[in-house]
Amino acid sequence: MLTLRTVLEAVEPVSRYTVRTPLVPATSLADTGRQVRLKLETTQAIGAFKIRGAVNALSKLTGEQRARGVVCVSTGNHGRALASAAAQMGSRATVCMSSLVPRNKLEAIAALGADVRIHGKSQDEAQALVEELVDKQGMTEIPPFDHPDVLSGQGTIGLEICQDWPAVDTLIVPLSGGGLISGVALAAKAINPDIRVIAVSPRRGAAMAASLRAGRPTEVEELPTLADSLGGGIGLNNRYTLEHVSALVDEVVLLSERQIADAMRYLYFNEGLVTEGAGAVGAAVLIEQDIRERLADTLGKRIAIVVSGRNIDMQDFTQIVNKSHPVYSRNGEDGHA
């Protein structure tokens, strides 16, 4: 069960293996007439927030469970986090991924000592291999989002934001399976029930948004996106995150591929940040005038944006910065290389 207490209990293991990331002013976004700060999870050693949930979940395992190994499905950053956490905490990690995951993320996970398995063309297909390894080899599954210990670890981000900036009134958070935003929103709203939470997702393969509309876990076609870390379904047997997102999130914003690329360029040129697509999506809410105006009644005056990660192939990033990426071609707005 995810509660403020479980988030507070996660602080000790999370602080032992991660850094308390800075919450820095975004001077360029202050032009919108609001105070804006960026929570830079890009400064974690693995380059993304996922390490928090991974170390908290591993800290709950017995020595015997760690010895048998842990396994997960991942679109990239959770696998990297679990591989890093396992190496530090005396376990071994197997990471199952679909063929859609970028090669740079596969290589980074393997470099941390994990056994990387490519299986299928979607996260759901890769999940089938996870279940087989749990059944046949006795490994412990550490899911990327739908698990209370993972959610509690991610919730420490919301806790830190509220501690560092008690006046914050709006949080903008990337949305995929809902692990990050569930933890962040629960912690923040437990501290300040009036705080508003805005979720941001790529339009391509927006499984959580579709599930919210349907009122139940829903499958969508998994498509390539610049925000590849936000890809994948929420699981037809989703137990936690759909309920939390439905109860705690005030608005959901869906972005085109061009809007994601523009947000990456904006953060680079105006804030000096290298981000992956998933890490940049929150900034688009304030950069894009039509979104900003549509959410005028939800956006407050003191806004924190979670910049969730920086793990992108630098050749792709350079193409986006130079506007030579296919997304900037005539027909590329909602396409992908």
Write a structural description.
This protein is an alpha/beta fold and 337 residues long. It has two domains: 226 residues, Rossmann fold; 91 residues, 3-Layer(aba) Sandwich (Rossmann fold), CATH 3.40.50.1100. It contains 14 helices and ten strands. The strands form two sheets. Strands 1-2-10-7-8-9 form a six-stranded mixed β-sheet, sandwiched between helices. The chain has a four-stranded parallel β-sheet with strand order 5-4-3-6, with helices on both faces. The longest helix is centred in the middle third of the chain and has 17 residues. The protein is globular and about 55 Å long. 55% of the residues are buried.
N-end to C-end Cα span: 40 Å
| CATH fold-level label of the largest domain | Rossmann fold
Overall mean pLDDT score? 95
CATH classification class of the largest domain: Alpha Beta
The overall strand count is 10
Q: How much helix, percentage-wise, in residues?
A: 40-55%
General shape? globular
Main beta-sheet annotation: 6 strands, mixed
Structural class determined from secondary elements: alpha/beta
The tally of structural domains comes to 2
Question: From N to C, what is the helix and strand string?
Answer: HEEHHEHEHEHEHEHEHHEHHHEH
Q: Which blocks of ≥5 consecutive residues have pLDDT under 50?
A: none
- The percentage of residues in β strands lies in 5-15%
Q: If strands are numbered along the chain, what order do they take across the biggest sheet?
A: 1-2-10-7-8-9
